[in-house]
Design goal:
Order of helices and strands: EEEHEHHEHHHEEEEHEHEHHEE
CATH superfamily: Ribonuclease Z/Hydroxyacylglutathione hydrolase-like
Number of helices: 10
Number of strands: 13
Structural class: alpha/beta
Helix content: 25-40%
Strand order of the largest sheet: 1-2-3-4-5-6
Strand content: 15-25%
Mean pLDDT: 94
Protein name: MBL fold metallo-hydrolase
Low-confidence stretches: none
Number of domains: 1
Pfam families: Lactamase_B
Distance between the termini: 50 Å
Largest sheet: 6 strands, mixed
CATH architecture: 4-Layer Sandwich
Length: 321
Amino acid sequence: MWSVPVPIPGNPLGYTLVYAIESPRGPVLVDAGWNHPDAWAALSGGLAALGLDVSTVSGVVVTHFHPDHAGLAGQVRQASGAWIAMHENDAALVRLMNEFAAREHAAFQTDMLRRAGAGPDEAAEAMGERPPPPALPDRELRDGDLVDLPGRKLRAVHTPGHTPGHICLHLEDADRLFTGDHVLPDITPHVGIYPYDREDVDPLGEFLDSLDRVRDLGPLDALPAHEWIFPDVAARAAEIRHHHEEKLERLRALLAQRPQPLTIWEVAAMMTWNRPWDELAPALRGMAAGEAAAHLRALEARGQVRRVAGVDAVRFHALDS
């Protein structure tokens, strides 16, 4: 089993750790990296340095559909004939993305930002470019499924939150857990709602439940997709859960101090990020609003805040504790 750092051009994360697991049919990759010539050179060259040829890869299991994880899966398949597997929930999103025209995506973003309370200028600036959709998978996984890895036991553990179909992969014969973006050693993954004002999902609630599930697997060695390998994934999962519970309590208290309901955009501007709101790039403000929306929705599901439908934008206010 090896790891290959695959760069993410222009991204502060730096790289995605792609893992290669030996198999009699050829290596199986956990994730593949961003679809970019430099990333492809790093992946194929990194495998070659290990004595592996990308043309011998038998499969790519993707922890989730984001472009820094699934972007090169299609190119690996073209080079080797490998299968691509991901959770059925993310596979459904990939199919939707492939059917969604770019102009429809722009209209979707504009309307979503408007309903969140962003002004016209802010909405225009916050609209990020849509990366090309990842390749459609050949195989769809469900919770508990074993990945096609002869001689090993690599089991899918459904851990929604970062995406609806995010999976961790438990290498049961080695007491290791490939955590994707679900549990990272120093940072926490983005958990947002898109569109921001959806009422039928609770991604942060699902994320917290998924952290409990990972914690219950015990003190396994963690092999994340970013940063570095670390021990005792259970302890880190509990730490991340505590962080979000504190964040939820601060948000509830903040809303309780305000006499009038606030839009999602106003809430996002008041929350604490890794830099002040005024210093966040427009696209990062859009992501922050998605995360604010997920925290508001979690509080709403707990009966601690209530949404108020408005003509221009949805608003939220705190209920008595």
